[in-house]
C-alpha cells in the first residue's frame, strides 16, 4: 500500500474547459471524495484514485455545470458504490441531494455544505473547517466570480451568498475554485476580501458590473446543461 501519511489533497485540471477537480482523502480509512470531476478526464481521475488506493464514496458537484459534462456518472461506472451529490435546489438528479448546513463525512474527515446561489440556484460551497479549506465552485473565482446571465443567475443573490457564506469564514481559509483561465490554482478569504475587483464593490456596483459582462456562452453549454441535470448520463448527451 502506498504510504500517504497525512490528509490527502490533489488538484487536477481539465484543460478544455479550464475546470479544477479536487480529490480529498482520509489517510486513516482511505475513504475519499472527488469534487467537480469532468467526463473527459474521469479515467485519469479514476487511475489516480486507484494508485493512491482511495475509496471514493462521494462525487460532489458544486452545481449543474454549463461548460463541461460532469464526470460523476462516468466515475460511478468504475466505482459503483460512489454516490453523486448535488444541491436539492439545483433541479438536477443525483444519488444524494444536499441542503445548506448538511455535513458530508468520509472517514475521519468532513465537509460542511454552504448554499451559495447566484451563479445558479443550486450552487454550493464545500468547507473543511479542519483543514481551513473551502471549495467554491463558480460562486467565487480567483479575483472574479461566476457569471449571472443564465441558469437562474442573479447578481444580488450571488453578492449576498459570497459575503454571508464565504467571506464570513476566517481570513486564513484557503479557497479552491471551479475554474481559472490564466492558471492560478487557489486563493484565500483574506486575499479575495481585499483584492476581488467585483466583490469588494457595493451590491449596486456589483450588479452593474455583472449585468454588463457581455460574455459569450460557454462552448459546450447546449450539451452540458441537459446532461448535467441527469448527472452526466451519456443517454442525455447530445451528439
Ligand atoms: N469560455 C469558456 C466559458 C467561460 C465562462 O463563461 N465561464 C463561467 C464559468 S463556467 S459556467 C463564468 O462564470 N465566468 C465568469 C467570468 O467572469 O469569466 C467556455 O467556452 O467554456
Ligand atoms: Fe458554472
UniProtKB/TrEMBL annotation:
CDD domains to which the protein is assigned, alphabetical: POD-like_MBL-fold (cd07724)
Metallo-beta-lactamase domain mapped to chain residues: 18-179
Annotated compartments: Mitochondrion
Database matches in SMART domains: Lactamase_B
Pfam families given in the database record: Lactamase_B
Gene Ontology MF annotations: metal ion binding; sulfur dioxygenase activity
Main enzyme class: oxidoreductase
Coiled-coil stretches noted in the UniProt entry, renumbered to this chain: none
Keyword vocabulary terms for this entry: Acetylation, Dioxygenase, Iron, Metal-binding, Mitochondrion, Oxidoreductase, Transit peptide
GO cellular component labels: mitochondrion
Catalytic activity line of the entry: S-sulfanylglutathione + O2 + H2O = sulfite + glutathione + 2 H(+)
SUPFAM superfamilies according to UniProt: Metallo-hydrolase/oxidoreductase (SSF56281)
E.C. code: 1.13.11.18
Entries under InterPro entries matching the protein: Metallo-B-lactamas (IPR001279), Mito_Persulfide_Diox (IPR051682), POD-like_MBL-fold (IPR044528), RibonucZ/Hydroxyglut_hydro (IPR036866)
Cofactor(s) this protein requires: Fe(2+)
GO biological process, one term: glutathione metabolic process
Subunit structure comment from the entry: Homodimer. Monomer. Interacts with TST. May interact with RELA.
Family according to the record: Belongs to the metallo-beta-lactamase superfamily. Glyoxalase II family.
Protein name: Persulfide dioxygenase ETHE1, mitochondrial
Organism, scientific name: Diploscapter pachys
Amino acid at each position: 500500500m502506498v504510504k500517504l501519511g497525512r490528509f490527502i489533497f490533489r488538484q487536477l485540471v481539465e484543460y478544455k474547459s479550464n475546470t479544477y477537480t479536487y480529490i480529498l482523502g482520509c489517510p486513516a480509512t482511505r475513504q475519499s471524495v472527488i469534487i467537480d470531476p469532468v467526463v473527459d478526464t474521469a479515467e485519469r481521475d479514476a487511475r489516480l484514485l486507484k494508485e493512491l488506493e482511495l475509496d471514493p464514496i462521494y462525487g460532489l458537484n458544486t452545481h449543474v455545470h454549463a461548460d463541461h459534462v460532469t464526470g460523476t456518472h462516468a466515475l460511478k461506472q468504475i466505482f459503483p458504490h460512489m454516490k453523486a451529490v448535488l444541491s436539492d435546489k439545483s433541479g438536477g438528479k443525483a444519488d444524494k441531494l444536499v441542503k445548506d448546513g448538511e455535513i458530508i463525512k468520509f472517514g475521519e474527515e468532513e465537509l460542511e455544505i454552504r448554499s451559495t446561489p447566484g451563479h445558479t440556484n443550486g450552487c454550493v460551497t464545500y468547507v473543511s473547517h479542519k483543514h481551513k479549506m473551502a471549495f467554491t465552485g463558480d460562486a467565487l473565482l480567483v479575483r472574479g466570480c461566476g457569471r449571472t446571465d443564465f441558469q437562474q443567475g442573479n447578481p444580488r443573490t450571488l453578492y449576498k451568498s459570497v459575503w454571508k457564506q464565504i467571506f464570513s469564514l476566517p481570513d486564513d481559509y484557503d479557497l479552491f475554485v471551479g475554474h481559472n483561465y490564466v492558471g492560478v490554482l487557489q486563493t484565500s478569504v483574506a486575499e479575495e476580501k481585499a483584492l476581488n475587483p467585483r466583490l469588494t464593490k457595493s451590491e449596486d456596483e456589483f450588479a452593474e458590473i455583472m449585468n454588463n459582462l457581455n460574455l459569450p456562452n460557454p462552448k459546450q453549454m447546449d450539451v452540458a446543461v441537459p446532461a448535467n441535470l441527469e448527472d452526466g448520463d451519456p443517454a442525455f448527451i447530445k451528439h
